[in-house]
Amino acid sequence: MxxxxxxxxxxxxxxxxxxxxxxxxxxxxxxxxxxxKMVYNRCGRSGIKLPAISLGLWHNFGGTDIYDNYRKVLxxxxxxxxxxxxxxxxxxxxxxxxxxxxGSILKNDLSSYRDEVIISTKAGYTMWPxxxxxxxxxxxxxxxxxxxxxxxxxDYVDIFYSHRPDPETPIEETMAALSVAVxxxxxxxxxxSNYRPxxxxxxxxxxxxxxxxxxxxxxxYSMFERWVEGGLLEVLNDNGVGCIxxxxxxxxxxxxxxxxxxxxxxxxxxxxxxxxxxxxxxxxSKIQLLNExxxxxxQSLAQMALAWILKDSRITSVLIGASSISQLNDNLxxxxxxxxxxxxxxxxxxxxx
Length: 353
Known about the structure:
This protein has a single domain, classed as TIM Barrel. By secondary structure, the protein is α/β, with parallel strands linked by helices. The chain has helices spanning 20-23, 67-79, 97-109, 138-152, 171-183, 197-209, 232-238, 267-270, 281-296, 301-310, 325-332, 342-352; strands at residues 40-42, 49-51, 53-56, 84-86, 118-123, 157-162, 187-193, 214-218, 242-243, 318-320. Helix 5 packs across helix 6. It has an eight-stranded parallel beta sheet with strand order 9-8-7-6-5-4-3-10. A two-stranded antiparallel ribbon has the order 1-2. Helix 4 (138-152) links the parallel strand 5 and strand 6.
């Protein structure tokens, strides 16, 4: 998942969420039928299956958020068969707090279920000052992974990603760092994120030669962001690598929230990741037309947008964010209908083009 850089304090604590012991004084008992409805897809040519919908902790799980709320969201996700939780070293804010919060939930509620979940994290964006706290050097990636494991109180992560390619570090060094993470037992699998087709192809080849095959690629992909269709999906398919898109709802644009403009308190109104100038009259018109197709399919716009990505057999899973259980449930309903008629696909393409 693409993130921006944050100024990182020399030390931080999550004392604002220290009340978790009073709000969570008994461990969560997962639903006994949690695997009955979720769809699980093979990740490339690996032995791993991932849920069709995975939960990303990019937003809503940081030190400025309410612990009791995101704890309920994450545990409900697990009850619904979501077994994959995706992070990066700098998710928060502050950076690192999402990992620390997940670690608390794992320890207090899911300590007996570690073998039933896939935990992924990444390194590649700014995390600490100086020349060793950013990009793709072996020094940064291994140091960052060590810090991530401490924050989550884990012995290993299931997937460790290079979060973005580094134009100044040899790709061989970055891939060697991923391979070292596996040989040291700190990660089971490795992945790439935000790598364009040519770089992805080269990285996948190097990892294979190192004996650490690339499991998965995490690109930005939605109805409004379709660059992966320009060669990346073919590269991944040809090499047996899975694909897990992030920002499938275009930062909320592909939801009912913006059908009538920019509502007060929305992400666009705050202008951090989604800026008001991005929501043009043309974009609003496309959102409204897409919503009409979704309604004819008896889906919300968000549900159709997720289904539209999942219709492609080359997609392993799609990463969603959720700030509430109701939002999570709404997104999960996309799995009820991921089939599109030829006419629907033609109409959608006409709107988007």
